[in-house]
Amino acid sequence: MIIKMDTGASAMEIDDVVAKVHALELEAQINRGAARVVIGVFGANTGEIDSEIFEAFGGVESAVRIQKPFKLASRDFKPDNTTVKVGDVEIGGNKLVMMAGPCAVESDPEVTMACARLAKKCGAQLLRGGASKPRTSPFAFQGLGEDGLKILAEARKETGLLVVTEVVDKEDVDLVAKYADLMQVGARNMQNYRLLDAVGRCGKPVLLKRGLAATVEEWLMAADYVLRCNGHPNVILCNRGIRTFDGATRFTFDPGVIPVLRHLTHLPIITDPSHAAGKWQFVPDYAKMAVAGGTDGLIIEIHPDPKKALCDGAQSLTFSDFARLTGELQIIASAVGRSM
Amino acid sequence: MIIKMDTGASAMEIDDVVAKVHALELEAQINRGAARVVIGVFGANTGEIDSEIFEAFGGVESAVRIQKPFKLASRDFKPDNTTVKVGDVEIGGNKLVMMAGPCAVESDPEVTMACARLAKKCGAQLLRGGASKPRTSPFAFQGLGEDGLKILAEARKETGLLVVTEVVDKEDVDLVAKYADLMQVGARNMQNYRLLDAVGRCGKPVLLKRGLAATVEEWLMAADYVLRCNGHPNVILCNRGIRTFDGATRFTFDPGVIPVLRHLTHLPIITDPSHAAGKWQFVPDYAKMAVAGGTDGLIIEIHPDPKKALCDGAQSLTFSDFARLTGELQIIASAVGRSM
Amino acid sequence: MIIKMDTGASAMEIDDVVAKVHALELEAQINRGAARVVIGVFGANTGEIDSEIFEAFGGVESAVRIQKPFKLASRDFKPDNTTVKVGDVEIGGNKLVMMAGPCAVESDPEVTMACARLAKKCGAQLLRGGASKPRTSPFAFQGLGEDGLKILAEARKETGLLVVTEVVDKEDVDLVAKYADLMQVGARNMQNYRLLDAVGRCGKPVLLKRGLAATVEEWLMAADYVLRCNGHPNVILCNRGIRTFDGATRFTFDPGVIPVLRHLTHLPIITDPSHAAGKWQFVPDYAKMAVAGGTDGLIIEIHPDPKKALCDGAQSLTFSDFARLTGELQIIASAVGRSM
Amino acid sequence: MIIKMDTGASAMEIDDVVAKVHALELEAQINRGAARVVIGVFGANTGEIDSEIFEAFGGVESAVRIQKPFKLASRDFKPDNTTVKVGDVEIGGNKLVMMAGPCAVESDPEVTMACARLAKKCGAQLLRGGASKPRTSPFAFQGLGEDGLKILAEARKETGLLVVTEVVDKEDVDLVAKYADLMQVGARNMQNYRLLDAVGRCGKPVLLKRGLAATVEEWLMAADYVLRCNGHPNVILCNRGIRTFDGATRFTFDPGVIPVLRHLTHLPIITDPSHAAGKWQFVPDYAKMAVAGGTDGLIIEIHPDPKKALCDGAQSLTFSDFARLTGELQIIASAVGRSM
Fold it and tell me: I want to staple A297 with a disulfide (CB 3.0 to 4.6 A). Which of A122, A270, C155, C180 is the partner?
């Protein structure tokens, strides 16, 4: 349920409403917009609560149910776009954000360092790189763990790039949060609810990838798990392709979801063209599409020597291809009124 | 099998090879490129023919099997991009093509005329409009038939726009060819092989929509049906969304297929954002993505009063939205080095 | 709209209602059930007709709108199961029906004859075999045409088996109807509406395969096309697998649709395990599942020497495997209260 | 790599081979079959190991690479069917296993007790029930946790049924293992690798559900994670429907995967018809299909009063429907040569 307060509602009136929500054993989340305060009321049994209970309170303009299955992520709860701050970088504003780096942090730190230097030079703001790799086979390379995180931190120190890296389990959240500026939850973990709770509570912003067969509603309900725990809306959605009958690419690129999300949610959207394509040849066009379609940023895999990459080399751009692409993207960004 | 002739092969040498192909009860298609002639050899039993038979002929550089299941549509057969002429409009060149109009031609000719005038004013080259509508239910409006084709011809006469319209059955090919400049084969008919044969033989260029669950290979094999019959490559592919688990839009928009096609085939590609989206709100962003991703043109549904449209009103742009979009698309087109 | 007549309504009262329907420029279809007559009213504009118009007529018990998008195929229109007579074979009754034969009728008639003899010996009632093969590639074997139909007719003459074979285009309907007892519309043609109209009008019963990405609603609307034209409900549905992300089999077997159809429609259901599996190894288990799940019959590909089959040999059962399977199926059939 | 030892290889020869495997920093798993010992060699770099190294050892018959991406789960590693013991119940043998119970353990213990009594009476061997429910929305009922596990243990004490329940996170493994006889890993967690590792190590047998868009290969690689950690093959696969375009049921029932799995893996297979159907009406037919198609058992949701169920009531069978179904299944089981 959404309780819209009057534009001039007092702090005490707001407190009274929140107290009533708690008395009903429900949760309250407060969205302080420019014009007014909106209070979201959540819980398993909100369906049984009569909205008139709240409409009788002072300072309440209206109390209405949210029809959609996602709540905190919905525009009904927060009509204005959210911008998420990662360090001093703002995601979801006019300026597009670029994240780039190797698929996995490899044992040779120079691979990551070289990626970071190139990414910095090309105008990226974040360095990506997997220290824990969730691999389909137990016998494949699983990542360097904390050693990988240290390499990322080292690269941040040298280049000033912020670090985005994946956290694969609840028990790793504290460790990853020590090194990462942006906590990535991968596609396979989009419905790992314990992990969502834990990253929500860690205080760092979260990059939530779309599950490979997740509907938009399921994805936004997963965002609700994080939003419910961190109390302020610092979740960034990341589309990365879905699984369909079409085997021409690794996954089926899904930029069509960008305007759909923009319509339904206030959260920023980042696009991963690399995992969708699975082949570096298609990555530049996929990146361009996403920018033209309104994404707030990109996360792209690069590697100094893709053929030698320990993981996903086929979808990694070489340094020269990435440099060329960033130049081309700036032109498209400005064509849709954004900067990069 | 692909027989590459020497760059200086004589007409007689070419004829000799073709005669040998026919003697083997196979089909030959000749692709006269800038540098050299390539002869495609096709038939059910090409797998049993030894390539050395042809390599012994004068003027033959090499004879190799095409590994891909599609042949005439493949870049192996024709490495250079094809441009298709529809009237005096070239599709597949640097200049993007815009096709616009109502979903169905309605009994009030003024609806179609108004669309045509607006489309012309906004720089479109073709008018779209369905005279025969393949509808899922037998009890829904099925189109005006020849009366609808006449309205389209009337609009062409007034505005100079060329006409693209769907042909739904082999028996209609002659009738539709009388009025249309570009023959559209719809998604439901992508594997209606008799229809493909017939439109291939009619001489007019063909717009071949992707079946809603067709793989890229099946689509290009469908193009092979048309190409085999018309002898010169005047097929234009049209992506229009695929069917997946994701119900957020009518179909799942599939612009990721554009660079994949560019890699595999020499044929031009047109994008239909309207059927994919199913909702007018998403059409502009979908159109922008397609242009950024390298499409050769767009086909968009417009209507003077979408709420009163007999068919697919929800996905039709109003005139003002369409006019605004065409302006925005020009900027993106030039950002990717194309004109519009 | 469904008009239920009183149990004792007179012929004249029924005629009056039908006359009124026609006066409104709508179509009427009459379902004469055991207890009462039901009149279906169909047309593009039934939504604008007030049901009270009919309720005022003598002998009318009620007039209500059909909410589902399919009408004639729905249980709302005809609550009792339909049995379709093919020759003297009843499909949809207690006794399961077996159809078997080669994928394609091959130029050597003995292949088809041998299949027919075995099928007969194993208790099958119908011989299947494709005379026109809709092939994905234009360069693959396309079938023998009328020569193939003659071979099927010859096999019928010798064995007494009835013939089911595919008709791929409207222009072939008369020819195929001359030879076939049951007209098959293939998956690729499920939404070839001209073909549906034509087979509906030809008077022969129709086996309507599910399109490979067709929803249940679309399938039943396709049945409506046929039902609308033939005036009596002689359509048999055939599930044959759908296209999904799962590439372990040629298509994803869909027997789960059997009870769903049973719930929604009165039409009989036949199952094709061969095309779903794509590999003969899985065909027997798929056939057993379908029988246990309530199918009314099976259509199975067999071949005397599958490795030499011109078409789909990988999914054809050998004679000994088929003979064993028919024995096993009888036991399962009786376990679910059916005979075979 | 698979090292087949001679039928008469000595323990010392086996030890020598294993020592060599470890010296190469690889993992060895030993499969002691009736006729011979097979040693599986696993690790990220097995591709670089020359098989001749092992063929030079005494007692080694052959050393060959496993081509499939899954290893321990494959029939290449273990050709004979595996039977998994849960308490004194054998899963994967001739006798089919029935698991039944409520979707979620509810706060009223009597719901679970009543289900357990009925399940026992109908011949079930295991009681199912969720104590931790992974729910799509954070605001839905999430399960009772340990209180729920205690209720399940209580029901076991009274009825003698064994308990299968889901573990949703690595941190819960010890707690759940204290109460459960069979540890369920849900569809959403099929690729939660930390959880797979942990349940593999806990020593209890594991029921591994198919992810809703998981390919067969991915599923068997997930089984590899568990198998690698527990050292003996006590994993049971559970098919439960997949996500496709078809919205007629909650998921698309996937019994076609049963013979595919039988072909590829030695692990037993259990079928969940309830989650696939999403509607109780279809559950009995789905259960029958699975038995006819070769499943080793079923897991079915039941509830004394489905309309009041806290979770998934629409797909729960009433007691009378379940009792009738178990009777019908016995007949089908014996039709395919199994007991129940």
Answer: A270
Q: Residue D74 is encoded by which pair of tokens?
A: 């494959």
Counting as contact any 3 or more CB pairs under 8 A, the partners of B are A, C, D
Structure tokens at B172: 């209609």
* Among the listed residues B122, B145, B123, B120, the one whose alpha carbon sits nearest the alpha carbon of residue B132: B145
Q: Widest CA span of chain C, in angstroms? A: 67
Mean pLDDT of B299-304: 97
CB B297 within 8 A of CB B98: yes
D232 pLDDT more than 80:
no
Q: If you average pLDDT over residues C300-319, what whole number do you get?
A: 92
DSSP state for residue B81 in the 8-state scheme: P
Instruction: Find the closest chain A residue to B243 by CA distance.
Output: A244
Q: Is-contact A163 A127, C-beta < 8 A?
A: yes
Query: Per-residue pLDDT averaged across C237-245, rounded?
Result: 98
CA dihedral of C284, C310, C204, C340, whole degrees rounded to 10: -20
| A61-80 residue pLDDT tens | 999 888 889 999 999 999 99
What is the tens place of the pLDDT at every residue in B188-206? 999 999 999 999 999 899 9
Beta carbons of B288 and B332 less than 8 angstroms apart: yes
Kindly give, in sequence order, each residue whose CB lies less than 8 Å from that of residue A227, ignoring residues fewer than 6 positions away.
A29, A72, A73, A200, A233, A235
Residues of B in contact with D247 (CB under 8 A): 247
Q: Which residue has the tokens 């070289």?
A: A114
C68: chain D residues, CB-CB within 8 Å: none
How far apart CA B131 and CA C134 sit, in angstroms, is: 27
- Average confidence (pLDDT) over C245-273: 97
Residue B5 pairs with which residues in a beta bridge?
B60
With contact defined as beta carbons under 8 Å apart, do C274 and C315 qualify?
yes
- Contact (CB<8Å) C243/A245: yes
Q: How confident is the model at residue D133 (pLDDT cuts 50, 70, 90)?
A: confident
pLDDT at A173 over 90: yes
Determine contact, residues A103/A311, Cβ cutoff 8 Å: yes
Look at residues C243, C274, C254 and name the one whose alpha carbon lies nearest to residue D286.
C254
A277 to B285: CB separation less than 8 angstroms, yes or no:
no
Between these two residues, B51 and C258, which has the higher pLDDT value?
Answer: C258
* Token pair of A100 as six digits: 């780039």
**pLDDT at C183 exceeding the cut of 80:** yes
DSSP one-letter code for A187: G
The average pLDDT across D226-233 equals 82
Q: How far apart are CA A315 and CA A278, in angstroms?
A: 5
Structure tokens at B94: 């640097």
Phi and psi at B206, nearest 5°, equal -125, 135
Q: Measured between alpha carbons, how far is D112 from D154 in angstroms, rounded to an integer?
A: 10
Neighbors of chain A with 3 or more C-beta pairs under 8 Å: B, C, D
Q: Are the C-beta atoms of D84 and D233 separated by less than 8 Å?
A: yes
Q: How confident is the model at residue C213 (pLDDT cuts 50, 70, 90)?
A: very high
Are B259 and A285 inside 8 Å of each other by CB? yes
pLDDT value of residue B99? 98
**pLDDT > 80? residue B318:** yes
Q: Are strands D182-185 and D206-209 parallel, antiparallel or unpaired?
A: parallel
- The Cα-based distances of A274 to A127, A210, A282 in angstroms read 15, 14, 8
Judge: C292–D294 Cβ closer than 8 Å, yes or no.
Answer: no
Query: C151 with C107: CB under 8 angstroms?
Result: no
Phi, psi of B333 (to 5 degrees): -55, -45
Query: Rounded mean pLDDT of chain A?
Result: 94
Identify all chain C residues contacting A213, using CB atoms and an 8 Å cutoff: 245
Q: Which letter does DSSP use for residue A212 in this model? A: T
From chain A, the residues in CB contact with B247 under 8 A are 215
**Helix residue ranges, H only, chain A:** 11-23, 52-55, 109-121, 146-159, 173-179, 193-201, 216-230, 257-264, 273-277, 283-292, 319-335
Q: How far apart are CA A70 and CA A74, in angstroms?
A: 6
